[in-house]
Design brief:
Blueprint: E1 11-15, H1 16-29, E2 34-35, H2 40-44, H3 48-57, E3 62-65, H4 68-78, E4 85-88, H5 97-102, E5 106-109, H6 112-120, E6 127-132, H7 144-152, E7 160-166, H8 178-191, E8 198-200, H9 204-207, E9 217-218, E10 241-253, E11 258-259, E12 265-266, E13 271-276, E14 293-296, E15 299-304, E16 312-315, E17 327-331, H10 337-343, H11 348-353, E18 360-364
Parallel strand pairs: 1-18, 2-9, 3-4, 4-5, 5-6, 6-7, 7-8
Antiparallel strand pairs: 1-10, 10-13, 10-17, 11-12, 13-16, 14-15, 15-16
Helix pairs in contact: 1-3, 3-4, 7-8
Length: 367
Amino acid sequence: MTLHEDAAEPRLTIDLDALAANYRRLRDLAPAAACAPVLKADAYGTGAGPVGRRLWAEGARTFYIARAAEGEALRAALGPERPARIYVLDGCPAGAADRLLAADLIPVLNGLDQVEHWSAAAHHGRAKAALHIDTGLNRLGLRPEEATALAEAPGRLSRLDIDLVVSHLACGNVENHPMNATQLAAFVEVSRAFPEAEKSLASSGGAFQGEDYALDMIRPGISLYGGGPFDRPDPRIAPVATLDAPILQIRALRPGETVGYGATYTVERPLRAAIIGIGYADGVLRSASPQGYGWLGGRRCGILGRVSMDLIAMDVSEIDSAAPGQRVELFGQNLPVDEVAAAAGTTSYELLSRISPRVRRVHVGGQ
C-alpha cells in the first residue's frame, strides 16, 4: 500500500476546545485571582501561537515563557491587536535588556545582578519587572533576606516598577505535602515588603492545593495541556494532545526470532508485529521500551523490543484488522498522557515537550 505523504507522518493533534475548557476549569478554582497561562517550550510542545490566541479569546491577558526568544515569537504570534503582558522567567541576564525592551517583554528578576542589569536599562521612566523570591526550590530567585534587604535599601528599586512578586512550589505536584505550607507561609511573609505588587505562587498543582495558594495570580502550565496536576490522570482535566503515527508494515514473526536493536525481545509464540512510523527522533522516549504501549482497535498494544530513532514495533496479534495505513495512538484520548509518561519512567511535562518539530501539529477546535 502506498501512503499519502501526510498520512505517512507522525501527527500531534491539539484540541483547542479542550484546552479552553481546562483553562476555564483552572480559572474557576481561583475566581478572585488572575489566571496567567504558561506557554514556555512552545506551549509544552503544542504550539504557542495558536494556544496563545485561543487563550486570549478566553480572557487570558498575562502569559509566561522561559526564554526571550520564546517571548519574541509569542509577541509576533499574538500581534498588536493582542497586547498581552508577557513575563520572561529567565529574567534579565547580562546583555539581554535591549532585546527584552524591543519586544516589550517583562523580566522576572532572579538575582541582585539582574536587578542591576534591568535598572541600568530603564532610560525612560521606571521599567516594569517581576521579582522572583526563592522559598525552597533552590533554582533561580533571591533568597528571602535578599529580597527584604532590597526592598528596604534606599534607591535600589527607584528605576523599577515591581508589579509582581513570584515564587514556585517544590512539591506542588504532591497533595498536602508539608513543604507546600512552609513555602506559602514564607512567601506571604517576605512579600509583605512589596505591598503594591501582585503575588503569585501556584502553578497547576498549586492551584489544586486550595484557595490559600491562589493569592493574586495562578500560573497554570501542564494541566492546560491535559496533564493531571498531581502527575496522574485527573477527571477534572480534559485530554488536549493526541500523538499518533501510521503502521508502515505488518510482519509475521516466528518463535525464536528477535525484535529490534540489541535483540532484547525474543518471540515466544507466533505473533503479528506492526511497525509504526515514529521513534525517539520524534520525541517518543527510548525509555518507553519495553513497558510502553500504543492504542489500536480498541485495545492496548505492547511495544516489542527497543524504540529506535524512526520506528517502533508493537504486538497487534489480537487485532485482526491491523493493516498498513492505520494510525496508532501513542497518547491522547484513549491513553492518558500521565499514564504513558509513567510507563516510560517520566512525567507528562517531558513527554509533551520532547515531541520534535518533525511531528506535524494539527490544531482543531474553534479559535
